[in-house]
């Protein structure tokens, strides 16, 4: 059988008394986009750096395209986009891409990538003088120019404007369609929901959930609305069918879950009207990946 793009089994990594990966396991298929999600400090960066061969694991096994991540044979088969860019500050965009292309047997034409990612006018601009978004797109181009079998993308759309973000999404979708495996780390839930075949949610060094976006979000629909904070939810629930759930999170934002038939909607609006509650932005929608993420990892900010 052809090995998976990435196979992580029982990964352990410690930094002194701090545990970045604590028996972490997941797989990523070929020709699929796998998104790694998690709060700051969840272990995403450490996990990816071990898969890229930049760090050694303290325990467990990691295989990339069937090989040890530090195997030199992977150099020509794996593309890496670093969040920091990794580009010499004085290098001009076009020259840098041509240099990177020279390392591969059958690279994508640098001029094609420059055009595709909107960098034509920046081709002669030194890296240090490019905007953050332009630097991000150049790093993405360098990661894919060698036609890799697997590419690691670390926050590929951070700091990009909407046009550049959508161009990046289209490029990722084309990579997948051509059989390339993509490991994507992102804080944009919409990005993961659109691009990922598989989502792996990490927290405190372990996998707390994984599956396709539809599997994680489920088929349940929710009634959402905004109103003044602190409504009497117990009283509201007494006016709704048994089994209905009502939550306020964050303050002034309400979610009703249950059998969303027209009668339930009418009951909610009737209760609000009888209690002088003005609702705003009332809508019915399915749970999002962001809902799942916050339910699993909590809403508190972490350092």
UniProtKB/TrEMBL annotation:
A GO molecular function held by the record: ATP hydrolysis activity
Keyword Lyase: no
Keywords noted in UniProt: Antibiotic resistance, ATP-binding, Cell membrane, Membrane, Nucleotide-binding, Translocase, Transport
Domain annotation ABC transporter: ranges: 6-229
CDD domains cross-referenced by the UniProt entry: ABC_DR_subfamily_A
Domain of life: Bacteria
Keyword Transferase: no
A Pfam family reported for this protein in Swiss-Prot or TrEMBL: ABC_tran
Biological processes annotated in GO: response to antibiotic
Topology in membrane: Peripheral membrane protein
InterPro entries linked: AAA+_ATPase, ABC_transporter-like_ATP-bd, ABC_transporter-like_CS, ABC_transporter_ATP-binding, P-loop_NTPase
Protein name according to UniProt: ABC-2 type transport system ATP-binding protein
Source organism of the structure: Actinoallomurus bryophytorum
């Amino acid at each position: 059988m052809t090995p998976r793009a990435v196979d992580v089994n029982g990964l352990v990594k410690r930094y002194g008394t701090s545990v970045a990966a604590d028996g972490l396991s997941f797989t990523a298929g070929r020709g699929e986009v796998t998104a790694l999600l998690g709060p700051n400090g969840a272990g995403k960066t450490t996990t990816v750096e071990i898969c890229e061969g930049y760090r050694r694991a303290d325990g467990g096994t990691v295989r990339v395209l069937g090989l040890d991540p530090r195997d030199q044979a992977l150099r020509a088969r794996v593309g890496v986009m670093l969040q920091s860019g990794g580009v010499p500050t004085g290098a001009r965009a076009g020259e840098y891409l041509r240099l990177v292309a020279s390392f591969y047997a059958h690279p994508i034409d640098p001029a094609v990538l420059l055009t595709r990612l909107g960098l034509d006018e920046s081709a002669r601009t030194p890296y240090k003088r490019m905007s953050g978004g332009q630097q991000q797109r150049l790093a993405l181009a360098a990661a894919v120019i060698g036609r890799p079998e697997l590419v690691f993308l670390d926050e590929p759309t951070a700091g990009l404007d909407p046009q550049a973000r959508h161009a990046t999404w289209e490029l990722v979708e084309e990579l997948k369609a051509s059989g390339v495996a993509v490991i994507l780390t992102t804080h944009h839930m919409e990005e993961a929901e659109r691009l990922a075949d598989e989502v792996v949610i990490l927290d405190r060094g372990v996998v707390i959930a994984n599956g396709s976006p539809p599997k994680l979000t489920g088929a349940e629909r929710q009634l959402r609305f905004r109103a003044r904070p602190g409504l009497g939810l117990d009283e509201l629930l007494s006016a709704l069918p048994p089994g209905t759930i009502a939550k306020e999170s964050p303050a002034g934002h309400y979610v009703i879950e249950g059998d969303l038939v027209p009668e339930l909607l009418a009951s909610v609006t009737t209760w609000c009207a009888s209690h002088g509650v003005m609702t705003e932005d009332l809508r019915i929608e399915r749970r999002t990946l962001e809902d799942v993420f916050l339910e699993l990892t909590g809403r508190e900010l972490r350092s």
